[in-house]
Design brief:
Strand content: over 45%
Number of strands: 16
Order of helices and strands: EHEEEEEEEEEEEEEEEH
CATH architecture of the largest domain: Beta Barrel
Helix content: under 10%
CATH superfamily of the largest domain: predicted glycosyltransferase like domains
Number of helices: 2
Structural class: mainly beta
Number of domains: 2
CATH class of the largest domain: Mainly Beta
CATH topology of the largest domain: Thrombin, subunit H
Strand order of the largest sheet: 2-3-4-9-8-7
Largest sheet: 6 strands, antiparallel, barrel
């Protein structure tokens, strides 16, 4: 297994498949990102159906309880996580309907990019976190997660502290498909170094490996990492 603190980024494995091969499930959460020079807004919707070669059906996005007006021809990157896989394709709105409920017909893709994420693959992020000693001693620091995998993280901190093998508690929030999750993870320090990321305001870096991750934490962590890796692969 490749350590999280290794500097060189692992290559993400991708392949081109058909939408049928993706085997998406009705009800899967879908992320729509507008393809525009002036906006990169993202909306969370649900997959409600598809007809081979014709269209993909999703619910109309809502903001603050109101359905958005969606323009015919508007282009999106559609991303979806189904099971333990991530998929993406470009599409556009071909029909917007309001009855019996608001939903969209999106153009059927010729091809879909499938992302195969290994446990060691790391996403570049910028997530504020808090760090505390596992044994509830005086150690208490704020930091920023610089990269993240399902196995661990590289965290930048302002003041050098900690030692290899020390156990910590790391807490941070993630957002996936419009939902917020608060994660509290047990970790072990694998490396302590300085000035690896000179462009940051956090000159000290801690390479962490997560341990004893519960199912409650692993599901949103996995979804968040997949989401970020998919964004960065396009």
């Amino acid at each position: 297994m490749t350590p999280i603190y290794k500097q060189e980024q692992e290559k993400i494995s991708e392949k081109i498949i058909t939408l049928e091969d993706a085997r998406l499930q009705i009800g899967d959460l879908v992320n729509l990102q507008i393809m525009s020079d002036v906006s990169d807004e993202r909306y969370s919707v649900k997959l409600i159906g598809f007809f081979h070669g014709q269209s993909v059906l999703v619910t109309t996005p809502m903001v603050d309880g109101n359905y958005l007006f969606m323009r015919i021809g508007e282009t999106f990157i559609l991303r979806v996580f189904s099971g333990r896989s991530a998929f993406a394709f470009t599409t556009n709105i071909i029909k917007s309907l309001h009855t019996p409920y608001p939903y969209l017909h999106l153009a059927y893709p010729r091809e879909v990019r499938a992302l195969v994420v290994r446990k060691g693959d790391r996403a570049k992020v910028k997530v504020i976190c808090s760090i505390a000693d596992y044994n509830n001693e005086l150690l208490q620091e704020a930091g920023i997660i610089i990269n993240l995998s399902v196995d661990g993280a590289m965290i930048g901190v302002k003041n050098k502290f900690g030692h290899k093998g020390q156990r910590l508690n790391v807490k941070f929030k993630v957002f996936v498909n419009g939902a917020e999750a608060f994660l509290g993870l047990e970790a072990v320090i694998k490396s302590v170094s300085t000035n690896q990321f000179k462009e940051t305001d956090f000159p000290c870096q801690l390479g962490l490996q997560f341990v004893n991750v519960s199912t409650e934490n692993s599901v949103p962590l996995l979804a968040f990492v997949y989401h970020k890796l998919m964004e960065q692969s396009l």
